[in-house]
Amino acid sequence: MPTRPAAFASIILNCLLAAALADDVAVEPLGPMLAAPRSELIPVVSRWSNDARGMDGARRVDSWPSARGRELAYAQAWAARLREVDFEALSPEGKIDYLLLANDLRSTAETQPFALQRDASVASFVPFAKSIETLDEARFKLAPVDPEGAAAKLSEIRKQAEELRKSIAERKKEDKLKPELAYRALEQVSANRQALERWFRHYEGFDPLFSWWCREPQRKADEALGELVKALREASGLSAEPKPGDDRQPPLGSPIGSEELAVLLRGEMIAYSPEELIAIAEREFEWCKAERRRAASELGCGDDWKAAMEKIKGDVVRPGEQDRAVRDLVAETLAFLDQHDLVTVPKLARENWTLDPTPPENQKTSPYFFYSPGANTVGMAYAGEKQDLDGKRSAMRSNNVHFTKNAALHELIPGHHLQSFSMARHNAHRRPFGTPFWMEGWSLYWEMLAWDLGFPKTPADRLGFLFWRSHRCARVVFSLKYHLGKMTADQAIDYLVNEVGHERAAAEGEVRRSLAGGYGPLYQAAYMIGGLQFRALHRELVDSGKMTNREFHDRILQGGSMTVEMVRARLTGQSLTRDHKPSWKFAGEAVPIVGASIP
C-alpha cells in the first residue's frame, strides 16, 4: 500500500528535526547529578521558604504592627523548631543549610527593632494607618463588612490626610521638615493609600450597599491622600507629580547608622566593621589609581588619567550596532574561558540569553548594562532616538567600547547569567539565602581574574576595566559613608564624577538607584567586598594547587547561593558548630581604620 503524502511528509519532517536536534542539543550526563551529595534539610528549607512566601502575602503593608509582629513571631517559632534538629548528626551539606537558615532567622529578629524605630519616626505622618489596617484585616479574614461604618472611617481618613497636608506645608515653610524624613513618610503614605484602594476594589460593585455608602467617601479619601503624597514629594525635593525620565529628581534615601550596619554585616557573615570595609576599599582604590596612571601614560596622556578617560569615551559604536558589538564580546569572552579551562559553561547557557534596549527614561536609574535573571535578558543602555542631543552623547560615552569590554564577563558569562542558570539547577532550595556578596561579588571577582589573566590587552581596555573596578571601590566608600552620616547624596555624585570618571548624568543615576532603588544598605558594598572574598578563596585553594580553576568555579556554582563564608566552609571542609560565628579575615588580619595611612 503506498504511503500517503501527508504521512510521508511527517516522516521526513521528523527525520530532519531529529537530525537538527542531534547537532544542536546536548544533555549533560546524569551520573554526576545523581552522585552529588544532598542536604537532609532540603525539605526543611523548602517548607520554610514556602511559609515565608505565604507570610509575605499576608503582609499588606510592612509597617503595620500586625505585619511586623507576624514576621517576628514566625522567625522565632522557626528558630525554636530548628534548635530541635541534631546538628552533629547532619552531613556537611546539611550543616551548611542549618547555619544558613539559623542565620536568616536570627537576622530577621535582630533587624526588627530598627524597622520599628523607622516606623515610629514617621508614625505621625500616617495617623490613618490603623484604620486602613483594620479595614483590610477584616477583608483578609472575609469578615462581614459594615458599609456605613466603613464610610465613616473613610471620612475620618480624609480629614486626617487634609489636616496633615496643611501641617506639612507649614513645616516646610518654616524649614522644619528634613527631606529624608519626608521621603520616608512618602513611602509609608503611598503604601497605605495603595492598600486602601485594594480594599475598596474588593467590595465595589460586588456589594451594592457597600458601593452606595462608600464610593464617594472613598473618592474623597483617595483624593486627600493623593494631595498628601504631592505635599510629601515636594517636601522631599521631588516634583509634585512623578515624571518619567526627569533627571532633576534628587537622589534620596534614609541613612541607617552604624549600629544597624553592624547587624546587617553579621547577617552577611562579614567579620569586619563598616569603617574597616571603607578602609579596605580605599586601599583597593589606591591600586586602581596607580594602574590608571600607568594606562594613561601608555595612551600618551602622561599621568593625567582623566584626559585618558576622555579619550577612550569617544571610542563608541555607531547607533544600531551596539547589539552586534555585545554579541562579539560574548564570543570573545567564551573563547577566553575555554582557552584557559576556567569554568564549565553548558551549551544551553551559552544560548538562552538575549539583549533588550533600556528605554531612555529608565536610564536615569540604569545608565549601564544590567541583567534580568527571570527573563535571561541583558538590559542594554545606549542612546535612543527620542533622547535629546546631550542625553544621546552621555549614553554613548558612558557605554563606550572600553567600558563595555567587561559587560559580557560581568552580566552574562561567567557572571550573572551563568549564576542564574546554575542556581536553577544546583541546590535550588538555597535561592532564598541569596546575598549580593555572592551574586555581585562573583561577577566582580571574574573581572579581577580576567585582569590577572590578561583579558584586557590594550591600555584603553585596561582603563575601561579600571573604571569599573574603581567604581566598585567607590561604591563601598560612598554607600557606607552615606549610611554612617559622613557623606551626602550630592557629595557621592561629585565623588563618582571626580574620582571615578563618570558622566554626571550617569553618576546621578548610580547614586539615585543606590539610595532609593529598593536595594539593601549593603548592596553597593557587596560588589568589591564579595569579590575580594572570592579572590582570597581562590588564592587559598587554586593558587595553592588544591584545586584547578575549573573545579573551584564549578563547585561554587554547584553549591548554590549563600554567604561567601559558608562557600569557604563548604569548599575547605571546615569543621562547623551549631553556634558558628563569622571570623574569616579575607582581607588580612591588619586592616587600617579610616584616616590611617594605607600601605
Proportion of strand residues: under 5%
Question: Which outline best applies?
Answer: globular
Q: Supply the helix-strand structural class.
A: mainly alpha
Percent of residues in helices comes to 55-70%
The biggest beta sheet is recorded as: 3 strands, mixed
Helices and strands, in N-to-C order? HHHHHHHHHHHHHHEEEHHHHHHHHHH
What separation lies between the terminal Cα atoms? 89 Å
- Total beta strand runs: 3
Number of separate helices: 24
| Rounded average pLDDT | 86
Radius of gyration, in angstroms, nearest whole number = 27 Å
Strand order of the largest sheet: 1-3-2
Q: What low-confidence regions span 5 or more consecutive residues with pLDDT below 50?
A: 589-599
Structure description:
By secondary structure, the chain is mainly α. The protein has 24 helices and 3 strands. It has a 3-stranded mixed β-sheet, with no helix packed on it. The N and C termini lie far apart (about 90 Å). Mean pLDDT is about 85; it is low at about 590-599.
Which features would summarize this protein structure in a list?
three-stranded mixed beta sheet, 599 residues, mainly alpha, globular, disordered C terminus
Helix and strand topology:
Layout: H1 5-24, H2 31-35, H3 42-58, H4 65-82, H5 92-121, H6 129-140, H7 147-173, H8 179-203, H9 208-236, H10 258-267, H11 274-298, H12 305-313, H13 322-339, H14 347-351, E1 354-357, E2 370-372, E3 377-380, H15 389-398, H16 407-412, H17 416-423, H18 436-452, H19 459-483, H20 489-500, H21 504-516, H22 523-541, H23 549-559, H24 564-572
Parallel strand pairs: 1-3
Antiparallel strand pairs: 2-3
Helix pairs in contact: 3-4, 4-5, 5-10, 6-8, 7-9, 8-9, 11-12, 11-19, 18-19, 18-22, 19-20, 19-22, 20-21, 22-24
